[in-house]
Amino acid sequence: MYLNNRTVYLGDLAITGLDLPMDSYQKLKRTELERGAVESLVGKADPKHFRILLAHNPKYFEEYARWGADLVLSGHMHGGLMRFPKQRGAIAPDLSLFPPCAWGTCFLKKGSAGKSSLRAGERKVHLPLDTCEMILSCGLGSHTLPIRIFNPGELTVVKLKGQKKQR
């Protein structure tokens, strides 16, 4: 099943696949998604469900949080192609330097603008309800520059655990 700008519902879970236009992947050119672009592609986020957004390009995390995603599963950054000490990615696939989140887990308050509140790799066990989490996989392949320096490939496994409903 392909979730190209579609949502499937599994009980209290809504899984949405986002397929962005190719111009959102331009190199050496700063491209932004217009406010409301995610909603125009996939529709409104249903607040009655836990919303997982599958979005290949993490560059637009702020817009994903603004849309209402609870969890974003993403990739594209390949861990920053090269990593420095403290696990910071050095080069993004669009050839920008030191992306704020190149791998790991990033957090952002839903509906807000601004930078992610935590750097990649940091974890919190309990997040506030108004927080969007993004799990950003390094993946197994390479990108424009076929290098991975101090940056091993990974296969990310996400285990979702629900809470019992209160009666």
Description:
The protein has 167 residues and is mainly beta. The protein has one domain (6-136). The chain is built from two helices and eight strands, in the order ββαβαβββββ. It has helices at residues 37-42, 61-67; strands at residues 6-10, 13-18, 50-55, 71-74, 83-84, 88-89, 104-109, 131-136. The strands form two sheets. The chain has a six-stranded mixed β-sheet with strand order 1-2-3-4-8-7. It has a two-stranded antiparallel ribbon with strand order 5-6. α1 (37-42) links the parallel β2 and β3. It is globular and about 45 Å long. The N and C termini lie far apart (35 Å). The relative contact order is 0.16.
By DSSP, the count of extended strands is 8
The count of helical stretches stands at 2
Strand order of the biggest β-sheet: 1-2-3-4-8-7
Tell me the Rg in angstroms. Answer: 16 Å
Low-confidence stretches: 113-128
Summary, kept brief:
This protein is mainly β. Helix content is 8%, strand content 22%.
Task: Please describe the topology of this protein.
Blueprint: E1 6-10, E2 13-18, H1 37-42, E3 50-55, H2 61-67, E4 71-74, E5 83-84, E6 88-89, E7 104-109, E8 131-136
Parallel strand pairs: 2-3, 3-4, 4-8
Antiparallel strand pairs: 1-2, 5-6, 7-8
List the keywords.
8 strands, 2 helices, two-stranded antiparallel ribbon, 167 residues, six-stranded mixed sheet, mainly beta, 22% strand, single chain, globular
